[in-house]
Amino acid sequence: MSYTTVNYEDVDQVSNAMHFLSEPLETEQVGVTIARCDPGWKSRPHDHTDNDHEEVYVLIEGEATVIVDDDEIEFTAGDAIWISPESTRQIRNGDRESAFVLVSAPRIADEEGAEGEWSLGGFAG
After folding, report:
1. Is residue 108 very low, low, confident or very high in pLDDT (cuts 50, 70, 90)?
2. Terminus of the chain with fewer CB atoms < 10 Å: N or C?
């Protein structure tokens, strides 16, 4: 089959917020997580230096603060951020529920190991 589907609500929740979709979707290089954050919820500070994964967070509902290194960035629905693998990141939710889509993947590198560019040729729209 050339595709896999899953509803995130059918995936067990971890840390009272995270629905990790990569395993049920059988992804090979992309991590996808839905984070439904209760009021006052905080993720643990972490980075992805060990696996060289960059991340994109998109807030799709509510308000929250994303802390990258020492910068506190206030988010409202529709805001997105790219975070380098080396940066420490944490989500701190506000007074009401919020929802994020989190996407992670290894950096793209050419054969010499230099960073490459995403190919946009296959995207329609």
Report:
1. confident
2. C
